[in-house]
Write a structure and sequence with these properties.
With about 160 residues, this protein is α+β, with helices and mostly antiparallel strands. Helices cover about 20% and strands about 35% of the residues. The chain has a six-stranded mixed β-sheet with strand order 3-4-5-8-7-6. Strand 1 and strand 2 form a beta hairpin. The longest helix is centred in the middle third of the chain and has 18 residues. It is elongated.
Length: about 160
């Protein structure tokens, strides 16, 4: 059975491949790294289960399930939100790394369009947050995928 969880997991693998060549600034001077990619949420910082965003988490991409719609006449869909975070002390141009990651992911998704049993639909929306917490920069990308429909069973088994 294919579920939205499968889609999130497929997206994580796909995005890891897309961003692995990036060499982005981190909070630690002189240390660069490719964005870490997570399913759902960032791992908790400690054992209390709270999600805490720390400077060491940057850069990152989170693939998060948002909603699922079952439409019997137009097909089923799954909505996913990517949360992208980068670190840059450049107050004028820090947003560029965040937008570059979003753009690269968008281009590669448009090339591939099919992830597992899910097909990307017509619209990808990218939005930089209006208010940024410099030196931390954030964007979201909203995606919608068609999900395989469950086929109705026909006939009845009168013996049971």
């Amino acid at each position: 059975m294919t579920t939205p969880i499968n889609l999130v997991d497929e997206l994580v693998k796909f995005i890891e491949g897309v961003v692995k060549e990036y060499d982005l600034t981190t909070k630690i001077k002189g240390e660069n790294k490719a964005p870490s990619v997570y399913a759902g949420y960032l791992p908790p910082e400690d054992d209390d289960g709270e999600e805490r965003l720390t400077p060491q988490d940057y850069p990152f991409v989170i693939a998060r399930f948002v909603s699922n719609t079952d439409d019997f006449s137009n097909g089923d869909s799954v909505n996913i939100r990517l949360v992208i975070g980068t670190y840059s002390e450049d107050e004028q141009n820090g947003w560029r790394d965040t937008l570059n990651i979003a753009t690269r992911i968008k281009i590669e998704l448009k090339k591939k369009q099919i992830l597992g049993a899910f097909a990307l639909t017509n619209q990808i929306q990218v939005e930089l947050f209006e208010e940024q917490l410099v030196p931390f920069w954030h964007a979201i990308m909203d995606l919608s995928f068609n999900e395989p429909q469950v086929q109705s069973e026909t006939g009845f088994d009168y013996d049971n």
